[in-house]
């Protein structure tokens, strides 16, 4: 497998995982809205607010990553590492790498899951 093929495969996996995470988080938002409408969700819960904020940030980061993938593919030369490729070739954002944004996306996703799980354990849902 050549280096370009590895880079292309990495970009495909990154795109799929980001799209999958957006789908899961959208389903979680739908679940929380259903609970809110049925009165089974404590609206003032700090943990629920953290979870919603973290999932929202993760979705924004996933959008940035998904928007950066075509840009990386359209470059004249493929980057040596997908993680180090900038999200765009614009003056202010060319220092921000796909790896950092993707890492923050996963971190926010995990924080959202932990907050949501803690809210369930402390009976703030249901």
List the helices and strands and how they pair.
Blueprint: H1 3-37, H2 46-74, H3 98-121
Helix pairs in contact: 1-2, 2-3
**Overall body shape:** elongated
For the largest beta-sheet, the strand count, sense and barrel status come to: none
Tell me the Rg in angstroms: 18 Å
Distance between the termini: 51 Å
Helix content: 55-70%
Q: State the helix count.
A: 3
Report the β-strand fraction as a percent range: under 5%
Number of strands: 0
> Would you tell me the overall average pLDDT?
90
Task: State the secondary-structure class.
Answer: mainly alpha
Unreliable stretches covering 5 or more consecutive residues? none
The string of secondary-structure elements, in order, is HHH
Could you please describe the fold and organization of this structure?
The protein has 126 residues and is mainly α. The chain has three helices and no strands. The protein has helices spanning 3-37, 46-74, 98-121. α1 (3-37) runs antiparallel to α2 and α2 packs antiparallel against α3 (98-121). The radius of gyration is 18 Å and the shape is elongated.
């Amino acid at each position: 497998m050549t280096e370009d093929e590895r880079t292309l495969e990495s970009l495909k996996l990154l795109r799929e995982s980001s799209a999958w995470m957006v789908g899961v988080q959208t389903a979680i938002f739908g679940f929380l809205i259903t609970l809110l409408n049925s009165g089974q969700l404590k609206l003032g819960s700090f943990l629920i607010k953290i979870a919603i904020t973290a999932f929202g940030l993760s979705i924004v980061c996933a959008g940035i990553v998904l928007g950066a993938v075509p840009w990386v593919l359209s470059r004249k030369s493929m980057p040596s590492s997908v993680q180090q490729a900038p999200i765009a070739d614009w003056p202010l954002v060319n220092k921000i790498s796909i790896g950092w944004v993707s890492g923050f996306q996963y971190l926010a996703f995990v924080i959202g899951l932990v907050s949501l799980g803690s809210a369930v354990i402390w009976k703030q849902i249901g």
